[in-house]
Design a protein that fits this description.
Length: about 210
């Protein structure tokens, strides 16, 4: 099932790891994150089941993903500030579009970018991304900072999951037949990164509306 060329690891027909694809953008991405969190700070949201997420999140773009006791939803206004989410920086949209093209998904125009912040011990349990209006567009996910073990499962939660180590600058793209696969992140180890210290930042781009 694994097939690789120099910079592209194919996990399945529509799922790719693009090693180091975001590295040329890092010097633009980091200041952009500071601007975003200055407008809409990272916060720990509560799941419908009542658990506080170990991952802290914010969003940029027209729509932002949220969770509370009532459920998961995309909204245009940040519930913490009462204002619209910060705009998606053009370099974010460009990176997402180019990564999608590399994976065979042309014309990807994300309207939502979820920014996740992981500190040591933070994790994301297996889930499907299915709050978007349709599943035509892929999910593009950019990793910065500390390494993480990404779990790439199947279409049932109980299916075995492949472990994929994601490094600073890696981009994952999954779409098509793989769009609704379960995925998650193992609890992060504290192995500080040169630029980001004991943090991992992940942006996940989607066409939500
Ligand atoms: C997500 O599934 O929303 C994020 C995955 C990641 O942090 O790599
Ligand atoms: Fe996800």
């Amino acid at each position: 099932m694994l097939e690789a060329d120099s910079q592209r690891l194919r996990l399945s027909s529509g799922a790719f790891v693009l090693r180091g694809f975001a590295l040329p953008y890092v010097s633009q991405l980091l200041p952009a994150i500071s601007v975003i969190e200055g407008i809409s700070p990272f916060r720990h949201m509560v799941t419908p089941g009542g658990a506080t997420m170990s991952v802290a999140l914010t969003n940029c773009g027209t729509l932002g993903w949220t969770t509370d006791r009532r459920g998961y939803q995309y909204v245009s206004v940040d519930p913490a500030t009462g204002d619209r989410w910060p705009a998606m920086p053009p370099v974010f949209a460009q990176l997402a579009n180019e990564a999608a093209t590399m994976a065979g998904f042309d014309d990807f125009e994300p309207d939502a970018c979820l920014v996740n912040r992981y500190r040591p011990g933070a994790r994301l349990s297996l889930h499907q991304d299915k709050n978007e209006r349709d599943y035509e567009a892929p999910v593009v996910s950019v990793s910065l900072g500390m390494n993480a073990t990404f779990l790439f499962g199947g279409h049932e939660r109980s299916n075995p999951a492949a472990k994929v180590l994601l490094y600073h600058g890696d981009v994952m793209v999954w779409g098509g037949a793989d769009r609704l696969r379960y995925h998650g992140i193992r609890p992060l180890k504290d192995e500080p990164h040169m630029l980001l210290g004991s943090e991992r930042i992940n942006f996940t781009f989607r066409k939500a509306g």
